[in-house]
Amino acid sequence: MKAIWSATILGILLAPSTTWARKVEDWSYDRLFKEADLVVIAHALGFAASKQEWPGKVFEKDCFEGVETIFHASSVLKGEDSRCIHLVHFKYTDHTRPYNDGPSLVSFFMKPISIDVMQQHREEDEQRELKQKRQSVTSKPEYLLFLKKRKDGLYEAVSGQMDPGLSVRALFELRSLR
Q1: Coil, strand or helix at 11
Q2: What does the alpha-carbon distance between residue 113 and residue 11 come to, in Å, rounded to a whole number?
Q3: CB of 137 within 8 A of CB of 112?
Q4: Residue 87 and which of 8, 37, 58, 156 are 20 to 30 A apart at CA?
Q5: pLDDT, tens only, 75-105
Q6: Cα-based distances in Å from 126 to 119, 121, 130
Q7: What global pTM score does this model have?
């Protein structure tokens, strides 16, 4: 019996895997802050197409197009005091379906957004009923950005173009409306 279990376990361990997973680095806040040239809290002002080519070798270049997003920094936490920041990043081309286990790309809201939240309330007879309470962002969404300066003077995510989502944190201020 032990021989059968040992052979089964050995067979499972040595069998070739049919799955593929892309290795993603661990980017803690400490590492992001340490390796960044610029750390800011900023909101997006606008964006335009960029002629930048996809730098990754894992995915086809024609599946991505460059974007340059312009930010206004409200707070500079590290680096030179630059209020206008040009961030180069990528998005999927219109005809491309996003990859499973693909890059962690970013996009940015430029206008205030609304979020509907359902909360549970108890009635007197102990029946539960969902009533809608509206919560809304009252100002432009801001982003905590960990960036590195490129040779051309523009910025990119410190975690690189493959996974810029690891260097960007959305900051939303929610206020309950009654």
Answers
A1: helix
A2: 53
A3: yes
A4: 58
A5: 999 998 888 999 999 998 877 777 777 888 9
A6: 16, 10, 13
A7: 0.74
